[in-house]
Amino acid sequence: MAHTTGDSDRPDQSMVPEAEFRRLLSASRTSLSRIAREADEVSAALEAAAAGLARLRPAERSAVDAELVVGQERIAELLDRVPSLAQEEIISMHPGLVLPSTELADGMQRNHNLPEGVAMRTIHLTPMSRVPRGALHLQSLVDHGVSVRLANALPFRLIIVDRYWAMAPASAAEGEMALMLFRGGSMVQLLMKVFELCWLMASPLEDTAETVVDEPTPQQRVILRAMMAGMKDEAVARELGVSIRTYRRLLAGLMDLMGVESRFQAGAKAMSMGWLQ
Asked: Signal peptide span per the entry (predicted)?
């Protein structure tokens, strides 16, 4: 849909047509239902893992070789050792926000230190592919032979090396960073099952190509927040210090950049990209 910039011939898009709203609402409900089903399956797998650990008798728990690693420095040292531990395969999944570029670069450096012949599979959240630095990181992984999949939901961060070492987040006193390091045994097998379930539900990166959208400028963020707040065009133009004609031209350009055709779609996309947080 073309966006005109004149004051008189441009329709006011502040009210979304009912048919469009219902279509978007139906699509959102379908997506949420699918995500809910996936979350239920992951939760069931986690409950099975917890139940399996609980069933172990005290004498059997000695077979669960686990170590609590506390503190950012110790965790970093352990992660740096991962390449030297691997002989066959490293698998991982990464929920949460997209990491800063420096941390993504550190992760790639570890991958470069892998011995030849070690396979890698990794699962990231879908929004990772929509942020420029995230999309670049994912493509770099693929270029280095890593099998990458994207998921709408992941239960926790997990790294497993050669189906023997497993690293997962843990709780520690005073809010310190901590992870549990498991070596072999039933717990690693259960964590493997959780990963494989998430892997089956995730989609290959090449099948989920997303349009990478540059993050909005401060001025564009003001426009998006004002739109979500339901402010009138005249009020937003005054806040920006521009004419109503210029504001509508800025708004049309922003919508074109985002690849949307209505203010409702722009607001929904901005929310999904985390631009309004």
From this structure: none
Extract the tokens encoding 146: 């890593």
Q: Please, what's the b/e burial string for 86-120 (b: 16 or more CB within 10 A of its CB; e: otherwise)?
A: beeebbbbbbeebbeeeebeebeeebeebeeebeb
Task: State CA 165 to chain mean position distance.
Answer: 24
Report yes or no: 56 and 64 within 8 Å, Cβ to Cβ: yes
For the entire predicted model, the pTM comes to 0.57
Domains in the chain: ranges and CATH: 38-207 (3.30.870.10), 213-272 (1.10.10.10)
Tell me the per-residue pLDDT of 30-59, one tens digit each, with 9 for 90 and over.
Answer: 655 665 665 566 556 555 555 554 454 444
Token reading at 16 = 């979304």
Note the pLDDT of residue 196. 92
- Closest C-alpha to 14, from 263, 265, 261: 263
How far is Cα 63 from Cα 188, in angstroms, rounded to an integer?
11
**Which of 182, 184, 154, 186 lies closest to 170, judged by CA?**
182
CA distance 80 to 228: 44
CA distance 92 to 167: 9
Give the other-Cβ count within 10 Å of 224's Cβ. 23
Please give the Cα distance from 27 to 198 (Å, whole number).
Answer: 23
Cβ-contact 3, 249 below 8 angstroms: no
